[in-house]
């Protein structure tokens, strides 16, 4: 479990620098240059992700039940995850109403993914993984929305084409994950 926690601290910590130490981050970018900052950011994040994957795998070997969710929440989680995939796709698809409305659909997608998994799973290692992601995404979403309001940020208007593209990409990615990749990568069938 310690490896999982260390990975979460590295990964989520690096992704929180812009919230908790924006002036420090800006000084690093000014001193090192944007590309070097992105390189350090990527390396630290990758190290954190590797530790999360390894730590979660090890923690699953010694499962401890914290709560027992009803079986129907597994099916609800499939819906939450589908919505999360569409939200993440909307972060990258230009000119969609989701991004125009939310501003930060990636963070909304992470919140939705983590919340759905917390509802559907009840093991300690699941709560240790998904709980911090939910908390981080909720805090970052709030901070980012306030920053946008303060800066007067306006996102490009959405279009039906952008909405359809985000929906199709999200649904196709979700289908691939639900039918094949979740079982292959995580070892648990998503739709069982």
UniProtKB/TrEMBL annotation:
Coiled coil: none annotated. GO terms for cellular component: membrane. The keyword Heme does not apply. The keyword Transmembrane applies. It comes from the Bacteria. It is a multi-pass membrane protein. It is found in: Membrane. Its main location: membrane. Keywords: Membrane, Transmembrane, Transmembrane helix. Residues 3-189 form the NnrU domain. This is NnrU family protein. It comes from Gluconacetobacter azotocaptans.
């Amino acid at each position: 479990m310690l490896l999982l926690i260390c990975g979460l601290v590295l990964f989520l910590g690096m992704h929180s620098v812009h919230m908790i130490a924006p002036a420090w981050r800006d000084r690093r970018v000014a001193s090192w240059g944007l590309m070097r900052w992105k390189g350090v950011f990527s390396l630290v994040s990758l190290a954190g992700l590797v530790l999360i994957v390894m730590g979660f795998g090890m923690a699953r070997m010694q499962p401890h039940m914290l709560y027992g969710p009803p079986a129907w929440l597994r099916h609800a989680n499939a819906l939450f995850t589908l919505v999360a995939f569409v939200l993440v796709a909307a972060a990258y698809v230009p000119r969609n109403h989701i991004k125009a409305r939310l501003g930060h659909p990636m963070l909304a997608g992470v919140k939705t993914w983590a919340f759905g998994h917390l509802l559907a799973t009840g093991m300690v290692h699941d709560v240790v993984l998904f709980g911090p992601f939910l908390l981080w995404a909720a805090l970052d979403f709030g901070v980012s929305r306030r920053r946008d309001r303060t800066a007067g940020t306006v996102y490009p208007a959405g279009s039906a084409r952008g909405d359809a593209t985000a929906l199709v990409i999200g649904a196709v990615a979700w289908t691939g994950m639900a039918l094949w990749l979740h079982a292959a990568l995580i070892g648990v069938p998503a739709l069982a």
